Amino acid sequence: xxxxxxxxxxxxxxxxxxxxxxxxxxxxxxxxxxxxxxxxxxxxxxxxxxxxxxxxxxxxxxxxxxxxxxxxxxxxxxxxxxxxxxxxxxxxxxxxxxxxxxxxxxxxxxxxxxxxxxxxxxxxxxxxxxxxxxxxxxxxxxxxxxxxxxxxxxxxxxxxxxxxxxxxxxxxxxxxxxxxxxxxxxxxxxxxxxxxxxxxxxxxxxxxxxxxxxxxxxxxxxxxxxxxxxxxxxxxxxxxxxxxxxxxxxxxxxxxxxxxxxxxxxxxxxxxxxxxxxxxxxxxxxxxxxxxxxxxxxxxxxxxxxxxxxxxxxxxxxxxxxxxxxxxxxxxxxxxxxxxxxxxxxxxxxxxxxxxxxxxxxxxxxxxxxxxxxxxxxxxxxxxxxxxxxxxxxxxxxxxxxxxxxxxxxxxxxxxxxxxxxx
Amino acid sequence: xxxxxxxxxxxxxxxxxxxxxxxxxxxxxxxxxxxxxxxxxxxxxxxxxxxxxxxxxxxxxxxxxxxxxxxxxxxxxxxxxxxxxxxxxxxxxxxxxxxxxxxxxxxxxxxxxxxxxxxxxxxxxxxxxxxxxxxxxxxxxxxxxxxxxxxxxxxxxxxxxxxxxxxxxxxxxxxxxxxxxxxxxxxxxxxxxxxxxxxxxxxxxxxxxxx
Lengths: 423, 211
What we know:
The structure holds two protein chains of two kinds.
Chain A: E1 3-6, E2 16-22, E3 29-30, E4 35-41, E5 44-49, E6 54-59, E7 66-68, E8 72-77, H1 132-138, H2 142-150, H3 169-177, H4 207-222, E9 225-233, H5 235-250, H6 257-271, E10 278-280, E11 283-285, E12 292-294, E13 296-298, E14 301-303, E15 306-307, H7 315-330, E16 344-347, E17 367-381, E18 384-398, H8 404-419
Parallel strand pairs in A: 12-16, 16-17
Antiparallel strand pairs in A: 1-8, 2-4, 2-7, 3-6, 4-5, 6-8, 9-18, 10-11, 12-15, 13-14, 17-18
Chain B: E1 2-8, H1 11-27, E2 33-38, E3 42-45, H2 60-66, E4 69-72, E5 80-82, E6 86-92, H3 102-119, E7 125-127, E8 130-135, E9 138-148, E10 151-159, E11 179-180, H4 183-187, H5 193-207
Parallel strand pairs in B: 1-2, 3-4, 9-11
Antiparallel strand pairs in B: 2-6, 3-5, 6-10, 7-8, 8-9, 9-10
Helix pairs in contact in B: 3-5
């Protein structure tokens, strides 16, 4: 049986460690307690001894890489166990430790897209399903898991106060006492830079603020964000809006620029379904529904209510839905499901005059449209200068899935639709 | 805790001494030790800078002219300078089982040095995210630690009357935009090394009283 070597926890406040050097290489034999690798955290370098005697079968984390505490960094097998071809092989190239090795649980696919590199040694670490985040949370102590299962509580839904949000015994007991899981319990407090008494005012973050903070950091870590910005002439939209406004008002709807942008965006999404997709492991998930999120700024936060099946609504229907959701978002009368299930988001960084913004993707979506301010500017039409309202539209997209060319085509299509809008 | 005042010790000699003592500490042949010493002028690289010298700004010729050697060391951290007038402390402590927390260990060293500075009349502080102890924007003492199976080595370097111009040869700890200071500079006059040694000993004995 191979022994898993874990990234040790070198202190209460330490959630991860960087491997700076492997003292032993794949194929080397090692004694129990003999130094195996060196890690570095902050100003400390530590030499980590092998938990078992044997042969280094696999090394999962390359020098210079940082992984969460308790990640499997290597496998030590009994002498003679190295026959599986691992001898002399390079450290496994899996660059995201903690992430499941795709092949781990599936029964050897017949034509595995073998990563040209060295043959993989025996089964990869067992405890690996889901994201790093999940992995950390579910890696709670057996006691915590036992209490959780006794009370039917899903640990992964809790924000624990332990390392990386890990759920501690105290956390789980307080959840049990309060009769079930609640929204985010306290997050761990890192060393404070400020103390009461200094010339500062300290205020607890609201639950919404904390959620936003978590989501933004998560999004930043998840998606490589790339942006393209297009300038769009809003002359035709402005003309149409003036013409139709009274008619729409009579029908009880407010016709805003956002309504037009939403309608054209839905059209563009139909043409380029990739921007409406999500990533699930190695799969691209194309969604048949277009559920359009519209970011609404609140006093100290923001919400993204969702227009379900936006593609089934015409301009009037979209106008009504946008006005309704925005007003209920501000008066806090949205139902929880009305802020869930979005497949694409429109946000309005231009509301106070910003030319354009670079918004963060609303996970697990893969793209977001930012609407800049709409201002009159000189535009060149047939070599003459006219004064037209102009808007800058930004597409923020996840480069894992969407390349610049696709984003460019999407925006070019959107621009064309808006400049030649057919009501 | 036993304290050994060693006077001036060459860097390589001190490395060898620590390696030996760490092994002896592991076997239980010695108890917890704090070595206090000074080094001849030397620039040392931590593991972060293994095989790279980007944070040494001086050329080899300039280093030779200043009489400064360069060493690769096994401690954590980036590049630093040691030299006469700097009190170097190498705690050889076994953190197992009650002190197994490397961050706490580093914070404890800072605490001991802040106490020592205070008894020398200087108010120093931590800067979140920047290990060491600081007076304003300037670093008074640097910390770089190595831990092997919870036995510590390397430690701190406290500027008493260090030739601060030698720090211009490097970017201390790889941190741009901050300076280095010494007790002598802060007090505006000579500070006897023995006074600081006594203050540091008292600081360590107070923070690590269980050792």
